Amino acid sequence: MLGILNRYITSVFIFFSIIQGVYFVEDAFPNLSFTDPVGIYDAGDGSGRLFILEQPGTIKVFNNDPEVEDVNIFLNITSIVDQDPGYTEEGLLGLAFHPNFSESGYFYVVYTDYGPKRNVIARYEVSNSDSNQADILSALVILEVNQPYTNHNGGQMGFGSDGYLYISFGDGGSAGDPQGNGQNLQTLLGTIVRIDIDNPTNEQNYSIPSDNPFISNPNALNEIYAYGLRNMWRFSWDPLTGLLWGADVGQYNWEEIDIIYPGLNYGWNT
């Protein structure tokens, strides 16, 4: 996964222009530096700001200007984000802004925590007094999924055009999916889930969309949108076609890019 991270980070911070097979490299923000960045995001609020996700547990915000020199710490949750001190795929891994972020101030993060080892999806709100700072006391846990190993945590999240929140979870880790999670519809490991965070129930801080593919299957968790995934580290929607594309980190020699369809089994590990 570190190779995927390095390529992703390079694509985030380096601008490429290809002219007749020749490319040039330019530092997009030469006055800035970051610690283990794993994502760059636009809140979609028209503010012209960018948000950088740092794996140890911070989100930094700055103006989208190549001459920018000032960075604000938008959120710091390093005290609750746990990482294996060695080779790690854990940390603060994903960020998604609510479609009505400019009005609600809601945004969502996914991070790893211990005791027990798990992936946590939480909602935060922007501070009422400073739009460049989150309200650390506003945390609301939406969903937690126990994680048997330190790798394959997934970590991507995003809102579809349907307004629902999509989240990727890895198969739980180790090699070869030793617990068979990828083909087990009774766990959220090895899946992409789809939930409605605008209409919580009395039992949980979200509800299940009525057209989720396994809504009528008594042997499957209703949150599941697609399964049989090893570790879908990133996904995104094609703005022209609306198709959902995902990058599933493979084992050893194989990587996979998939179009994600509801209810489809992507085969890991069969």
From TrEMBL:
Keywords: Membrane, Transmembrane, Transmembrane helix. The keyword Oxidoreductase does not apply. Coiled coil: none annotated. Residues 37-269 form the Glucose/Sorbosone dehydrogenase domain. The chain crosses the membrane at residues 7-25. This is Glucose/Sorbosone dehydrogenase domain-containing protein. It comes from marine metagenome.
